[in-house]
Amino acid sequence: MTSTSADPTIDDAKATGSIKRLRLLAALLLLALAVRLPLAFWPNVIHPDEIFQYLEPAWRMLGHDGIVTWEWRYGIRGWFLPTLLAGPVALGDWIAPGGAGAFVVPRVAAVFASLSIVVSAWFFGARVSRLHAIVAAFAAAVWFDLVFFAPHTLSEPLAAALIVRAALLVTDEPSQKRFVVAGALLALAFVCRFQYAPAIAVLAIGACWRRWRNLLPLVAGGLVVLLLAAIVDVTHGVVPFAWLIANIEQNLLHDRAAEFGVTPAITYLADFWILWSAAGVLLVAAIWRGWRHAPLLLVVALANLVFHSLIGHKEYRFIFLSVVLFVILAALGSVDWIVALRSRRAWRPWAVPFVAGVWALLSLALAGASETMRDNWMRGIGAARLAAELRGDPDTCGLALYNLPFHLLPGRERLSGPSPLYALQPGDPLARGHLKELVQTTSPAFNRILARPDAAADLPAAFSRRSCAAVGNGDACIFARSGACAATSAATPFVINDTLVRLDY
Fold it and tell me: Which of 253, 269, 328, 477 is the most exposed place for a label (fewest CB within 10 A)?
């Protein structure tokens, strides 16, 4: 008998090609990190949820005082995501005590989690060609929507990153092991953002409809994570997944979500037009060319978009999963244009830089083109500046919010630290009709007030205006008096969490 071995030069060529591909992917990940990481330190807040539904509960888990919103009082939020964030929050507080570290480090963790989308985009493209991989990962690295949402501690970006990774596993040479891992990722995404359940179901059915037995490992992987989530609930003293039932009850039966606004079904299409402008036409054309490279992604994106369009209360972040999938598909389609350009000799060396440049320039332009995006970049900045001034003031011994919504502010620890925090609100049954008199009688308990500038006439004469900044749709100012704070029974009922209970907010 004779034996043969593979040509070593072929093996060397494959190894060299793999190393080059890994270097390219690493370079694109560094690019993605370079444009995302500074945003973790930029204290804008897209929505109060990232503070009060996730970071604030994680802060309370560590034994600190925090603001408790109506969602947590009614038990419609699960403890899984705050539990995941508790580690970064604790690390941040250890690195930079005083609230800033507990805010920044979780955002840094969210940035690193968002890189999963870039990696997934690469491998979706790699199924077609190396060029498709490069352009797909580049688009995912620089596109403004994906960059903007990356540092925010919201359920939508994390769930989207998990679902995209799971989609890669169940559509790329699927095996039982891959289906188990994908099932775990999809279950984790469901626990983080259960409203993505229809998209998850469409992905699971699309991946298994030819071989239904693949559902078994997919479900098995999901059950492991769901069991872990149930254990987390039990650890926090609540019935497993009772939050899910309570959420559906409050939002569907009692229509609580509608209190925050109801818009028509075409709202998301209008959002795309506002944020993407005329570039949306180009992206739709690219998606039309790219969907054939990953048809299941388009089906999942549309299913998610349609489902959320049927819900009365709409926010752009709700469809972030669809945005991610549309960008990946458009990037794959744009490579087809590169191939067409390369067929012309004059364009051959310029095709890739041209298309990549269009992606980068469109992203840069759209990041600040619309009033909506300009507002998004600055939302919460003024509140963060006032909070930093209050938190860094050694003379502060008590803080009152006078007719100023708490949800516009950056959380209890960053706002008042160990000092008592009071809320004097006109809708409070104990304050209705005599708010001006109330601030006079309770003022010995605090020496700092946050209020709108036009509230100055209502405040005690001892309080003088200091710094002001944009908070919400108007300015808010710090009003200060000299001297210490004295405990008073008049102020006790207006500790912020007691006020929120009466306001049912």
Answer: 253
